[in-house]
Design brief:
The complex is a heterodimer of chains A (about 270) and B (about 325). Chain A is mainly α and about 270 residues long. Chain A has one domain. In chain A, about 80% of the residues lie in helices and about 0% in strands. In chain B, helix 3 packs across helix 4, helix 3 runs parallel beside helix 5 and helix 8 crosses helix 11.
């Protein structure tokens, strides 16, 4: 294929992904039951945790922070993006249940565009969630220690993580084709999240949670989001976060690819 | 070149063979109706021909492309409107057709123009910016049909396009299908309605339990059956008793709805007095009597041993009315 044809095919595919992404975003914002839990639940949890456990910052070994709210912002964003990934999976499963994906599968488009389009919607939710929690933090007195650059870093990491987690949600949706199965994973999302450093510093955890949190990829991501907020941009933490996100992306794509093939076999 | 060629096509789901080695050919510009009850294998066949499901045996080509090896080329050549219109209730009609245009690789400006034209064609311009969830069943089917046409496909697949629709909406869809066919589009439709196949199709394939049991033009299939039959509704007396009396008059067909006696007669209307006299002598009162020319249902009965109409009427009663 010559460069011109390749460029043309790439442009067409990007246009398809953008169109599917726009549909996914519109669908999310038109269906309150998809967006409400992503914002409402983590916001309530943030309010309860900061209101009830604010003095945790005085514990020996707690990282130096301006306030517990400042520490918790990354956890709240992580919570929201995990729920966004879950919601994206639910939305895709609903598409499968109502037959909308048949419309997509019977069109001459690459199969990966269907998943990428869905992930674009999940990324938009991640972006929205990061802006929401940064705004809440600033309104209630938390500071972003590394300023605008740190805020942008947090926004980029949250958005990318939402896409990565959404890939896992999409793979489960494609494999099961059932919205209720994907919805049933909600408690598991919370368990995985609590077994990371999202809500509490790793150093203060007890075994075996401490070891699990140490190797939990979500801990690497949450630290990458947290550092620019509580201290400053740290290359090592950022790199760890990016690698963890890439790992989840690769896993999500592999699982999605397998699930797509399976769906074509079983119908 | 035929628009669709199917040879020994099979699909198994575990131990169940849903489609059992079917063969069929649909010529370009033809309307082919695939007629059969629920679970006969119609939708499974359509899903294989539209590349949504891999066959487990045999082969098929659509618009000259193999459905497995050249799936993407097949998808570029076909329009698909599947059973239970696959629409997103949160999108507007206009958004859906524009999205479909993008999926088919049509440039944005051209896609918008075609969307407007198609919405106008299916009489949905006034509702184009309303969410699909607010549409009636008939409007949803028309929108689904319009979306399937956005790239002017060579072959159009319609899976039970009118199931659950009221008679007016059904006739509107039939009108659209005829108009499309007049423009040269090959149409492959599945249906469980005899009238639909009879009214629309150039050729009909009757499928039962995964096998094609009869194929031909509606007229040739009916001609195969040959004789008309008399359909009797009894005022009193049992169907079994009436059948015993009428057995010497002609071949008995399976009773319709379990209440109507059906007897095939060689001489048409000339045999009516004989039938009435025989029943009268036995003291069985007749409420109504009708001479019925062979229909596709008779063909179906001949080939399968049961009535398709009973089953489709049952389903129509269960289906939501638009």
């Amino acid at each position: 294929m010559d460069a011109h044809l390749l460029g043309s095919a790439l442009r067409t595919n990007l246009r398809i992904v953008r169109a599917l992404g726009m549909r996914s975003i519109r669908q999310t914002f038109r269906r309150p039951q998809l967006i409400a839990p992503i914002i409402v639940f983590p916001t309530l949890l943030l309010a309860i945790q900061t209101g009830g456990a604010g003095s945790a910052v005085e514990l020996p070994g707690f990282p130096p922070v301006q306030s517990f709210l400042q520490f918790m912002l990354a956890g709240a964003m992580m919570n929201a993006l995990m729920l966004a990934g879950n919601s994206g999976g639910i939305a895709l499963a609903v598409d499968i249940e109502m037959g909308f994906t048949d419309r997509l599968f019977s069109a001459p488009i690459p199969r990966f565009a269907i998943v990428l389009g869905r992930l674009a919607g999940t990324a938009a939710l991640g972006l929205f969630a990061s802006l929401w929690f940064l705004t809440i933090g600033l309104v209630f007195g938390a500071t972003i220690e590394s300023g605008v650059a740190g805020a942008l870093m947090a926004i980029v990491l949250v958005t990318a993580s939402a896409m990565a987690v959404g890939g896992i949600g999409a793979a489960i949706a494609l494999r099961t084709g059932s919205a209720s199965v994907v919805q049933g994973l909600f408690p598991l999302v919370l368990v995985v999240l609590f077994l990371s450093s999202a809500f509490f510093p790793q150093e203060l955890m007890i075994e075996p949670a401490k070891t699990i949190a140490k190797y939990n990829p979500l801990s690497f991501i949450v630290e990458g989001i947290r550092e620019p907020i509580i201290s400053g941009i740290n290359a090592s933490d950022t790199l760890d976060a990016v690698l963890a996100i890439l790992g989840i992306v690769v896993l999500g794509l592999l699982l999605s690819d397998r699930a797509l093939r399976h769906r074509l076999k079983v119908g | 070149m035929p628009a669709i060629v199917v040879e020994g096509l099979e699909r198994a789901f575990g131990e169940v063979l849903a489609v059992q080695g079917i063969d069929l050919t649909v010529e370009e510009g033809e309307i082919y109706a695939f007629l059969g009850p629920n679970g006969a294998g119609k939708t499974t066949t359509v899903r294989m021909l539209t590349t949504l499901l891999l066959p487990t045996g045999g082969c098929a080509s659509v618009a000259g492309h193999d459905v497995v090896k050249e799936a993407r080329a097949v998808r570029s050549s076909i329009g698909v409107a599947l059973q239970e219109a696959a629409l997103d209730p949160l999108m507007t009609g206009r958004e859906l057709i524009r999205l479909q245009a993008t999926l088919q690789g049509i440039p944005t400006a051209e896609g918008r123009r075609r969307a407007d034209d198609l919405l106008d064609r299916v009489d949905l311009s006034g509702a184009a910016d309303r969410r699909v969830g607010t549409y009636s069943g008939g409007m949803q089917r028309r929108l689904d049909l319009a979306a399937a046409l956005v790239h002017e496909p060579k072959v159009l697949f319609l899976d039970e396009p009118t199931t659950g629709l009221d008679p007016v909406s059904r006739k509107t869809i039939w009108g659209e299908v005829r108009a499309l066919n007049d423009d040269g589009t090959t149409v492959f439709l599945t249906t469980q309605y005899l009238e639909e196949a009879d009214q629309l199709a150039d050729n009909v394939g009757i499928i039962d339990r995964g096998k094609i049991v009869a194929e031909g033009t509606p007229e040739s299939l009916k001609a195969e059956i040959g004789h008309p039959h008399i359909q009797l509704q009894l005022a009193e007396g049992s169907v079994v008793e009436a059948e015993a009396i009428l057995a010497p008059v002609g071949k008995l067909l399976p009773p319709k709805d379990g209440k109507k006696v059906l007897v095939e007669v060689e001489n048409g209307a000339a045999d009516i007095p004989r039938v009435v006299r025989a029943l009268d002598e036995a003291g069985i009162a007749v409420e109504s009597l009708e001479l019925v020319r062979p229909t596709l249902d008779d063909v179906f009965v001949e080939k399968t041993g049961y009535h398709l109409e009973d089953e489709s009427e049952e389903n129509a009663e269960k289906a939501p009315v638009a």
